[in-house]
Specification:
The chain is an all-beta fold. The chain folds into three domains: about 15-65, no CATH class; about 80-350, 5 Propeller (Tachylectin-2, Chain A); about 370-445, Macroglobulin (MG2) domain (Immunoglobulin-like), CATH 2.60.40.1930. The protein has one helix and 32 strands. The chain has a four-stranded antiparallel β-sheet with strand order 1-2-3-4, with no helix packed on it. A hairpin with an 8-residue loop joins strand 15 (about 205-210) and strand 16 (about 220). The longest helix has 5 residues, at about 310. The model is unreliable at about 355-370 (pLDDT under 50).
């Protein structure tokens, strides 16, 4: 086994190693992660093993430093991330719930083929920030106790479904059914294993939304086939009755037959600033599709729209966000613009905050193209920064979880320095804004 240390590499599947200087100490370290193109085999959590080189380049001595390099500093739900924004604690701030395909459990061989077992859970991240600056902190890693249900593909939807004044939970899953979890004073129990006998085939992705604007929340469900199922609420708010209307709402199917036979639609209906109903649908191919022309046209063809950039007040962003995307939108940070959190099968999340940056999970990385010079790096006190093109206007430093930890504005300087002695040890991303463009570089604090 390699490396010959206290704990050897044990990763499924196809572990690939990189020999690079991770911590900028001029000694090459060992970084190992799975390289299997099959996402249903590889370990999705604790799957980036970092061995620091405690020796020299010509005689390395590797010591295991962490099994979740970078992953520990961001939201990582294993395989698959299905985000839903909902104000659970009724404090006026939307909280974040994230279901997933599953977390890797173990692997085994069957007839010479490697198989892996996954298990899904639902996580609750409480919004402890403000309307202008939302901050999501993990509050419950096993919300509603769903880990014990041995499910795959948990996808949540929230509403008071029995008129008792508490918010209940619908759980979509790989079987295509919906599990109704009744809320009894904060304790959840299964009320119905197959809510209203609904079965959409495989991988149900529900949303509760008043689609026909009659004051009652209807039930919309995506599925493996790529279409959207519509169940109209023909009951009351306290006693809903969901009646099947169509399995081809808006004549939408996000399957790309050139790539796959499946679509894995994840619909999210919302209202724009003019109270018009809009729709964003995630897909297996990774693209987020946007639609309008919905109000008064529930029997017709929804209109594909290309204005998601405008709705989010972003520019230069591709909405191809990776395999099996899912998105949730809300007015969570003021300013009147919608904000979006998107997940995909890698298990991470991206937060579009109105300037096309990605904050809670992964910060969008932009190479400095050699235009920025930073030294010393690593640093423990002061960092000197200069640019070869343009002049510096603002320097912002973010943790790898997207938290802004330092910011200073300048009067168009060619070079300056920033004090970092109050930052904790670790890796950060520094964003240097100049009048000739913006750059992001990695910095290390020792």
């Amino acid at each position: 086994m390699f490396p010959s240390v206290e704990e050897n590499v044990q990763l499924f599947s196809m572990p690939a190693a990189a020999y690079i200087d991770v911590n900028n100490d001029e000694k090459k370290d060992l970084l190992v992660s799975p390289f299997d193109p099959n996402p249903f085999i590889s370990n999705g959590k604790e799957s980036v093993w970092l061995y620091l080189n405690e020796g020299e380049n010509n005689q390395p001595v590797f010591e295991l430093h962490t099994k979740d390099f970078l992953q520990a500093d961001m939201i990582d739900r294993g395989s698959g991330a299905y985000p839903v924004l909902f104000d659970w604690d009724h404090d006026g701030l939307d909280d974040l719930f994230v279901g997933n395909y599953g977390e890797y459990q173990y692997s085994y061989y069957e007839n010479y083929f490697l198989r892996s077992v996954f298990r899904s859970r639902l996580a609750y991240y409480k919004n402890t920030g403000t309307t202008e600056n939302p901050q999501f902190e993990l509050y419950d890693n096993n919300f509603a106790g769903l880990w014990s249900k041995n499910l795959l593909g948990i996808f949540p939807a929230f509403a008071d479904l029995n008129g008792d004044g508490t918010t209940d939970l619908l759980v979509g899953n790989e079987k295509g059914t919906l599990i109704f979890m009744r809320n009894d004073g904060g304790n959840f129990s299964v009320s119905e294993e197959q809510y209203f006998n609904i079965d959409v085939g495989e991988y149900s992705t529900p949303q509760l939304f008043d689609l026909d604007k009659d004051g009652l929340k209807d039930l919309l469900i995506g599925e493996k086939g790529g279409n959207i199922n519509y169940y109209r609420n023909t009951g009351t708010s306290s006693q809903p009755e969901f009646s099947f209307i169509t399995d081809s709402l808006g004549k939408i199917n996000v399957t790309d037959p050139m790539i796959s036979y499946n679509g894995y639609s994840t619909p999210w209906f919302f209202e724009d600033a003019q109270n018009n109903t809009r729709l964003v649908v995630g897909s297996e191919q990774g693209f987020l599709f946007c639609f309008d022309g919905i109000d008064g046209n529930l029997d017709g063809l929804f209109t594909p729209a290309n204005d998601l950039h405008e709705l989010l007040d972003t520019t230069d962003v591709s909405f191809d966000r990776g395999y099996r995307t899912s998105a949730t939108l809300a007015h969570i940070s003021g300013g009147g613009y919608l904000k979006m959190i998107a997940g995909n099968f890698s298990g991470g999340l991206e937060y579009f905050n109105g300037s096309a940056e990605v904050l809670p999970g992964i910060i969008q990385y932009v190479s400095n193209n050699g235009n920025v010079n930073i030294y010393p790096n690593p640093a423990d006190d002061v960092i000197h920064i200069s640019v070869s093109i343009g002049r510096i206007r603002t320097i912002s430093v973010y943790s790898l979880t997207g938290q802004l930890v330092y910011q200073q504005h300048f009067d168009r300087l060619k070079s300056t320095e920033i004090n970092v002695n109050n930052l904790n040890k670790g890796m950060y991303l520094a964003r240097i804004e100049t009048d000739a463009g913006n750059y992001v570089v990695k910095i290390s604090i020792e």
